[in-house]
Amino acid sequence: MTPAPPSKAFDQHHPPSPELINQCVHCGFCLPACPTYVLWGNEMDSPRGRIYLMKTASEGATAMTDAWVRHIDTCLGCMSCMTACPSGVDYAKLIEATRAQIERRHPRSQSERRYRQMIFETFPRVDRLKLMRAGLSVYQKSGLQALVRGSGLLKLLPKQLQTMETLMPALGSREAVPPLTPAKGERRKRVGLLLGCVQREFMPEINAATVRVLAAEGCEIVAPPDQPCCGALMVHAGEEAPALDLARRVIDSFERAQVDVIITNAGGCGSNVREYGYQLRDDAQYAERAARFSEKCRDITEFLEELGPRAGRKPVNLRVAYHDSCHLQHAQRVRTQPRAQLAAIPGVEMLELPEATLCCGSAGIYNLVQPDTADALADRKARHIGAAKADVVASGNIGCVLQIAAALKRQGDATPVLHTVQIIDASIRGVRPAGV
Ligand code: SF4
Ligand code: SF4
Question: What is the pLDDT of residues 60-94, one digit of tens each?
């Protein structure tokens, strides 16, 4: 057999695996599951088309042209195609390897480079997010935000900055999670909590609710204050080297905590930390430790299902539309557990949304770098929610919560959007969920 010509597009550091690429039998079952194919109907913006682009690049038949990169850039990394694929093609590994190649080898325009740099130097940095929160809190509380939004000034900003502004949640009080929270009653488990980066500063109420629920269920919770961002935003965008540095620091931090289980409560972060073993497979010092770390990770709803309830649930009487985070349902395969946790609350009526497997457009930094496509998907999702006449939307990922809340607002729909664990917490405490 003649060996394949060297790739003009990819270097030798973990190019997308030809074995994985060749598992695709071109059946097309994934096409209707792919949000960009659903929007545009273009083969090259479908999973099958993107795998074909990877194949031709890998075989040396295509270079990494701007058009080639555009088709890969528009992929949300939602992994809906993996759920749909009967051949078990591991698209997650393919797209991550391809994106890392792009960031190493494809020169982006100066404005794109600067914008991405601003994102990566801010969002994964907890110290900088803290400062940003302080400034934004003044912006909101001084009435300046209302003035800017009411005056139409926002429309003068570039679309990306408009998107950032509209995604910003109303900042409440800072409910910082203590480094150690004791279990209520007899201790059943000692768990670690991954705090996230954006979530820790901008929606700390999600972590606070998670800690209260875990403590009520008999868990002692360790939340190492020195844990950095898990690197999800970076790894999903092809920024491999800084993402791996963050992964090593997260592992160090949780090893010191000596916990039985590591709880995640954001779909994107959860799917990322479960891949540490794979991401650090070449690192002699970390490979085994990373694999052990990944084994311990559980989404909060998955963990609560495994643990079984001890705390009583009081009625909340709500029609709840559950929105699946892509990284929870497709990457982590956690679909039934959040529904079961919510349905177990007395008075909850669960509503299923049409097109539940389609992404809302949040997808890590996707809504910041591809805002028009992200808005189109979010508006579609918001229309389904509006038609369902829900009292509240629940989701297991801060990105989805912010994205859907912004889309509902655009449509003049005041339905609140909460994290699933906030509804469980309200039920255990016997209070009305916030904002409902
Ligand atoms: S990850 Fe999502 S957007 Fe990308 S190809 Fe798969 S289904 Fe389409
Ligand atoms: S469903 Fe799987 S095998 Fe079929 S075209 Fe899509 S990725 Fe390829």
Answer: 999 999 999 999 999 999 999 999 999 999 999 99
Ligand nearest to the CA of 26: 2
Pocket of ligand 2 (CB under 6 A): 24-30, 47-48, 51, 81, 84-85, 87, 89
Rounded CA separation 272/276 (Å): 7
Nearest CA to ligand 2 atom 8: 24
For residue 6, pLDDT beyond 50: yes
Residue 156 inside a domain? The answer is no
Only one residue has tokens 């097109």, namely 355
225 alpha carbon – ligand 2 mean position (Å): 43
Pocket test for ligand 2, best of 17, 23, 25, 45 (most atoms within 8 A of CB): 25
User: Domain containing 79 — which CATH number?
Assistant: 1.10.1060.10
Domain edge (last residue) among 52, 72, 105: 105
Residue 252: inside a domain, yes or no? no
Does residue 236 lie within any of the structural domains? no
Q: Which residues line ligand 1 (CB under 6 A)?
A: 33-36, 47, 50, 75-81, 91
Instruction: With beta carbons less than 8 A apart as the criterion, state whether 306 and 271 touch.
Output: no
Of 50, 70, 105, the domain-final residue:
105
| Structural domain harbouring 87 | 18-105
Model confidence pLDDT, tens digit, residues 134-158: 999 999 999 999 888 888 888 888 8
Percent of the chain surpassing pLDDT 70: 99
In the predicted model, what is the mean pLDDT of residues 378-392? 97
Separation of alpha carbons 269 and 274, rounded Å: 9
* Euclidean distance between CA atoms 417 and 415, whole angstroms: 7
Is residue 395 a part of any domain in this protein? yes
